[in-house]
Amino acid sequence: MGATRETGSDAPGEARFLARLALLAVLGSLLVLVLALGEGGLIVLGAGLLGVVLCAAGVWWFVAHRGLLRVIGALLVFLAPAGVVVLFAYQGLWLTALILVLCWGVALTCARAALRRSRPERPQVATAAARPARPVLIMNPKSGGGKVGRFGLVERAEELGARVILLDPGAPADVAELARRAVADGADLLGVAGGDGTQALVAAVAADHDLPFLVISAGTRNHLAMDLGLDRDDPSRCLDALTDGEELRIDLGDVSGRAFVNTVSFGVYADVVQRPEYRDDKAGTALSLMPDLLVGEGVRRLDSLVDGAPLADQQALLVSNNPYFSPDEISGTGRRPRLDDGELGVLGIRVEDAAQAADLAVRGSQSTGLTVLSAHRVEVTVSGPAEADGSPEAVEDAGTDGPPEAAEDAGTDGPPEVAEDAGADGSAEEPGTSGAVEIPVAVDGEALRMPIPVVCTLRPGALRVLVPRDRPGVVAPPPAIDWRRILDLAFGRTVRTAPR
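^ that's the sequence the OP posted. Answer follows.
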């Protein structure tokens, strides 16, 4: 990714000062332990570590088993941290523990601040954008619990000169085809007020015709809007881009011919969201299925080639349009610092027992159960007896139903349209039509089935996104902690880093 550059003696004085503060805080925590050795310093460390291990084991037993083990797991999740607190109070160690936590918190805060100041984030280049003359916006009135109506998005868009296509929840429609017709009628901008699954379908049409694309944060989670820095609390502010906007070039993901803007999930999550009952009972459905998906007989494991290198026997695989900031944030709060680096993020998970769950909890991204990579091409297949997944039972169980957010976000382009669009734009064949082995795939939250091998690639800079100049959600994510670089910064030594 280019030649390295050197910093160190010329590093900003503020970064050096913060690096030294971080090291002092680390030394302070060690000093507290040494001074407290006779008064239970080792107990603090040992009890805290044991509490984390037992809690992680409890989560595993609760999720991966049924019956008595699930009950024991639930008890451990609550009793392990409570027991640690009681022990500290009983032994009079709570002050030592509190000081250690504070010292470590100061160390991490100062370390991240030092790293951020020593190597500032390269801002994504935005270019001036002309006001569109014939913008067309597709809006889903059901998305995000009715945000289109609550924020008056139709009226506001029409005031700004946009033509609005309002989807009818009672009449499923092919939104990609609606977007293509709008282009044929002369649209010079396409936009969507809806969930990320719908955003991706229309974004693909915009990219194919090299038209600007407008994201309106009216979905449930709005991952794409978050990473673009848009206001997720007030989607009407996204419409400011029509009159005072600028343009960003971002990458667009492709999974076997279907566009995605955020993530493609394989394995456990994709299996769970295929079930029709998941719509009405997320937690109950997941807990019911997890034991069979994680440790049951004949469980499916994922094999993949990541830029040609094998990654075998994974329980879950997440491929993202550009890497997320931290692999430790396997949740809806994770962010991608950039959307134009031209690489896929790859996250593989394999945890098969309580010991591996504890290792993951303690070591995080350094655990053997977590694989974090970046790539340009990912090819996914399956291994094990579940490979013959084209059975009628599997197809019937999966149907074409998606998770609640997929149906809600897509609205009229919900489950019936998933199968229709997959056939129309060549992204996935309908179950049973080709005889090929198919696996569940969750694309931007929508439940699909695709024939193997499923290939994920990226179209660098394919999507022109029109955004408002004022984007309150733009934040610089904290850098990953690198203590070697902290030492180099603190003592003025040369630091070799790759340009970003």
